[in-house]
Fold this protein.
Amino acid sequence: MSLKKEHIAAIHAAIHASKSILQIYQHSFNVNHKSDGSPITDADCSSSEIISEALVKTAIPIINEENEAAPYSLRKTWDTCWCVDPLDGTKEFVKKNGQFAVNIALIENNRPVFGVISHPVEQRILYGGIGYGVFIADFNGLDSAAEIVKSNLPTPKSNLTMIASSSHHNKLISDFAGNNKILISQFIQKGSALKFFDLALNNAQVYPRFAPTMEWDIAAGQAILEALGGGVFDINTKAPLIYNKEILTNPSFIAVSDVSLIQCF
């Protein structure tokens, strides 16, 4: 199925924003703090402006981390909306460890149907959704994007790789791995939505998260994983996460590269 014009707009917006982020990253930048104490930089603001300017042309409403969300009384009437994190991993950006991303997801009827995740430092972009396939490309090589093809073989329940946050790893995650019916043979820590690159490429199969996250942190990754036969699930109910909720905070969740793995938790 061919990509729609709104999908293409999101891909190009992510690339344009990523290039702006990278330019700021390579020089000195200002770091301020929001009311909740989280950092915000010149790069967050620049990326937000670039993405908003591009997506507003689609006439689809936008939920953007850096803008005040519309009241739920209005949002609940939206069948379709964008869910945007202009700079996912601002703490990693400030640390200058390269582990930050740009996330854009298209939400339809509370489910993510198309996702875009770009990695400014490596200048790579991951995008796709159910019915469209999942692709990975260099910023300057969209015409030669490679489709990620999931194997039809069942995922074994042993020798799995778990990936988790570089900022929020804790004993809960270690206990979680030990208490379930799988064998974790390798453990990776990585910041931001870059973890979804590893899950999509099957370099990791399991990503549990207990620390708070927001919808814009996960929506693009969920759309991509679902297109590859995986998903992101509420860790208690095992239901797929939903979006454009009244409260935009996610529950604790587990992301898996293969949906069969959720039965082990």
Remarks:
- Helices lie at 5-25, 42-55, 72-75, 90-95, 171-178, 195-200, 215-227.
- The domain at 160-264 is CATH 3.40.190.80 (D-Maltodextrin-Binding Protein; domain 2).
- The mean pLDDT is 93.
